[in-house]
Design a protein that fits this description.
247 residues; alpha+beta; Phosphorylase Kinase, domain 1; 2 domains
């Protein structure tokens, strides 16, 4: 965490205050906050300024294009983040539950993918196909995994070579990362977003993205390999690696 910590919140105004902690990513401290009299969300983490500049510029772009996202709220002097802290609009809504709900999530993801073709990679990150040759990228360190597991992951990612890339949300199949109302679907928690093959976002409950058998198998294997690598070696990662077929 930044040595300044939550004191940075004062850069959003003297009356800015933390309210209560929210369930957030393991890498960040996430709280509901009050800024200029309205409810918002503050996220404090150890990401670089370049990383946060990429994420906040992406969210502004998606908001301008009409996709529902948490929008960065600037500091009093106009910056979109300060000392590792980002403040964003609070999003109402509940998680997807039904097959129809997940179908709306799939439609939203496909809009995200269309709106970000050719987007530059998040600083310090690697795509799944980059990891066919690279060992590390942000949270991923393949050298920490068993070599046989790395070979299985790379075999899964090799099936994605040659596909067009765009921004992927990175964790949309977690219902906690989606806020739905009758008229909109909002993806929240863009901490894992990066440039990759869109298939990684489309392995959803009920196969809501409608992938056919072969496409679903390629996507599911690549996605399981990615989740195993990105959080190696917790219980979830070990379970996901077990789903990646032997070479």
């Amino acid at each position: 965490m930044s040595p300044v910590g939550w004191e940075a919140l004062r850069q959003w105004g003297e009356d800015a205050a933390r309210i209560e902690p929210l369930a957030g990513g393991v890498a960040n401290d996430v709280w509901s906050v009050r800024v200029r009299g309205r409810l918002a969300v503050g996220r404090l983490g150890a990401r670089s300024d370049a990383d946060l500049a990429w994420e906040t510029a992406l969210l502004q772009h998606l908001d301008r294009e009409g996709l529902a996202v948490p929008v960065p709220i600037p500091t009093t002097d106009g910056r979109l983040f300060a000392d590792g802290l980002v403040v964003m609009t609070y999003v109402e809504g509940g998680p997807p539950e039904t097959e129809a709900d997940w179908g709306r999530v799939a439609d939203t993801l496909r809009r995200l993918h269309r709106l970000t073709q050719g987007w530059p990679q998040r600083p310090g990150w690697r795509s799944s196909t980059d990891l066919l040759h690279a060992e590390t990228g942000t949270k991923i360190d393949l050298a920490a995994m068993p070599p046989e597991g790395v070979a299985r992951c790379r075999a899964a990612w090799a099936r994605l070579v040659g596909r067009r890339t765009c921004v992927v949300h990175g964790n949309p199949n977690n219902p906690g990362n989606v806020r739905m109302t009758a008229d909109r679907v909002t993806l929240i928690d863009w901490d894992e977003a990066h440039v990759d093959v869109p298939d990684l976002d489309l392995v959803l409950p009920y196969n809501a993205a409608g992938l056919d058998g072969g496409a679903h198998d390629i996507a599911a294997q690549a996605s399981a390999a990615w989740e195993a690598a990105v959080c190696w070696d917790d219980e979830h990662a070990i379970k996901r690696l077990a789903e990646v077929r032997a070479v």
